[in-house]
Design goal:
By secondary structure, the protein is an alpha/beta fold. Helix content is 42%, strand content 18%. Bound molecules: fe (ii) ion (FE2).
């Protein structure tokens, strides 16, 4: 299966922006939904999504697969997700490299994974089962993390690369998450980017975070910072043309400000392409 073509530059679809999207027809190429917000078959959210999807390509991004948990996979959730996908026809479906609970307790958080060979095999097996059930490849995102495990036997980027190769899945690379985790754990974010196989990357996330001094927190409530823009430039050079979007989940700015932020991503990507053409000429 070849990699899906780039959709261009998109935004996370959030209810606060429904009206702006429908009324202003901004320069936004595609939208990402949070899967869990649309799993109820009736009501306003799905009605709005039906309207919006008539004009924009949609991708589905979930937070509940809990791929690294030792609890059984939740097939009620996966059935509901599959049903939504049949209705919405997303370009692809993604979730995170994480676990969200164990022993039936949902922590509603994206929890970190020990980077061991045992965990790698466990996650790969579960991605395979999900992909078989859905009948399609899924994309897996690198989460931001705040602790590491002494038991880890490899770097995060080695785990992510091995996972993608062994499960034959796509990757969703969150540039801000790389930056946040690199700061929190003291690794070089460029090393992460350089290790990721470009042919598997179908999507990029950009977002802002909070700075707590000793650590950074992936809060999606700030504009994208200068260092993340700089890392995005490197990502563009490394991965080429990839569907890119901004996640904003709190402290929502006026819609036009978010669209302007997306234009900055467009400009950075265009400058990378331009400099490549200059070098090739
Ligand atoms: Fe993300």
């Amino acid at each position: 299966m070849s990699k899906p073509l780039s959709l261009g530059f998109g935004l996370g679809l959030r209810p606060v922006y429904y009206k702006d999207l429908l009324e202003t027809r901004p320069n936004v190429d595609w939208l990402e939904i949070i899967t869990e917000n649309y799993l109820v078959p009736g009501g306003r959210p799905i009605a709005m999504l039906e309207r919006i999807r008539a004009d924009y390509p949609i991708v589905m991004h979930g937070v509940s697969m809990s791929l690294a948990s030792t609890d059984p996979l939740d097939f009620d959730y996966l059935k509901a997700l599959k049903k939504l996908a049949e209705r919405i026809e997303p370009r692809w479906i993604s979730d995170h490299l994480c676990w969200t609970g164990v022993h039936g307790v949902n922590m509603h958080d994206l929890l970190p994974v020990p980077y061991t060979f045992e965990a790698l095999q466990h996650v790969v097996d579960r991605i395979n089962r999900v992909q078989d059930f859905l009948g399609r490849k899924i994309a897996i995102e690198n989460a931001s993390t705040y602790v590491t495990f002494q038991e880890s036997e490899m770097d995060e980027w080695t785990f992510v690369r091995e996972m993608a190769e062994r499960a034959d899945c796509w990757l969703l690379v969150d540039v801000n998450n790389i930056y946040v985790s690199a700061f929190n754990h003291g690794f070089d974010e460029r090393q992460f980017v350089d290790a990721i196989p470009a042919e598997r990357v179908v999507q990029l996330h950009l977002a802002g975070h909070s700075d707590a001094g000793t650590h950074k927190i992936d809060t999606h409530d700030q504009p994208i910072c200068a260092d993340v823009w700089k890392l995005y430039e490197r990502v563009c050079r490394q991965f080429g043309e990839v569907s890119t979007m901004i996640e904003r989940d709190d402290n929502f700015p006026p819609f036009h400000e978010l669209v302007a932020e997306l234009d900055r991503a467009r400009s950075i990507y265009a400058a990378v392409v331009h400099s490549r053409e200059e070098t090739a000429a």
